[in-house]
Write a structure and sequence with these properties.
The protein is 32% helix and 19% strand. The protein has 475 residues and is α+β, with helices and mostly antiparallel strands. The longest helix has 18 residues. Bound molecules: uridine 5'-triphosphate.
Amino acid sequence: MSKSREQQKYEETLARFRNHGQERVFRFWDDLDAAQRQRLLDQAAAVDLAALKRAHEANSGNTGARPPKLEPVPVVRLPAHGGDAAAFDRAFETGSQALADGRVAVLVVAGGQATRLGFDQPKGGYPVGPVTERTLFEQQAQKIRGLRRRYGRPLPWYVMTSDATDAATRALFEQNDCFGLPAEDVIFFRQGMVQSLDFEGHLMLEHPDRIFENPNGHGGSLTALLSSGSLDDMERRGIDTVFYYQVDNPLIQIADPAYLGFHLEAEAEMSCKVVRKRDAMEKVGVVARADGKVGVIEYTEIDDEHRFATDDDGELVFWAGSVAIHVFSTAFIRRVAESADELLPYHASAKRIPTIDDDGQPALPAEPNGHKLERFVFDALAAARSVCVVEADRKLEYSPIKNAEGADSPTSARRDLIAVYRSWLEAAGIELPKDGTAIEIDHSRVDSPEDARQLGIRRCDEAGDAIRVQAGESA
Ligand code: UTP
């Protein structure tokens, strides 16, 4: 770019930012070299200042809105909790047929930064296997390989990354030969980034030539599916149903046929899996109707009257905790993504944001200094013409890795994974290793109690490497 064109571009951009009170982004301009200036101008060109202003206004102070009126939603209950076992069998058949017809894709959101876990690689690379330390991605790929074999269809896997995880995620898949899946059926797409704001609504600099940005939240999956062309790719492949999950739950039952079946039978546009909250104070969002529209009410947003409300049996009225496992129709994803400004608002959370001081020196504050903005996938629920909510058994389906220790940590997730394996072995009449023994099952070969039964064995060591037991402990 010639000097005068650069100058002109700079002046136009500066004027646009000044109009929004954001000109401090350019305060180090005079100290930047040509390449740095270009980088900053390129980044600035993509900033949607009006959207940021709306996000700041919506998230700052008291909006004066009255809290919504909450009502519980109807939930398809598990047979063990009074649900209809025959309906589960029918739904299983319906979902299996959709898988056999090749109508289903799997979508994992894996663009998060794993700050609570403190893992500097993509979370999907976390070694979760209790015996072999296989990663979350490898374990999920095994499940997909098993489903491909069972249903004779490709079951394409769409992996959402972010700037924070993209290169490392692709490298991990490459180094591992796509974990045994054909490369054409593993499709990476990258979510967008959004700028953080200080508490006054100003952009923040990460470097003199760089505005601080973070991945735009799991809700960014819906817009990125559209903008990356992945949604078109799905439709080209004849897919109309998408199974959505988060990368950090080693108990995930990928493309669970009964869940898919309930979604399809209800002609739902979006579905939710829920588990019973452990207690009223558990930090999990609940699925409920808010002013008539289904949504997830976050634990920070529910007031005590609803949080503690119980029915005649003393059970929580708002018991249905969301576990972020959804099914979508592709048409619905398109509709939401096309109207994302309206349907997927940015939510702000106060964070410690690494920025620079007035001398351009790095400064990580001890206290939160600004808001990260994120879109939440469950905000799409309000736009769905029909929603289906299905109960899941937490101990068989949900034990996420969020924290380095304590609840929802690698230790609790491995413990719960081993408990699932033990339940499969027990149901199949296979002798159980002694308590506390690490067990690991190859999900491409055994992914349910029925699969374990079909092995026709009595002891784990007869299963070869389909079932591994910690060295010296084989039963
Ligand atoms: P979390 O909100 O638990 O975030 O994301 P995280 O990145 O795993 O961990 P923290 O909050 O930094 O400690 C739930 C799921 O949503 C994905 C994550 O990868 C995870 O699978 N996610 C989150 C994205 O894909 N993009 C985002 O912008 C945020």
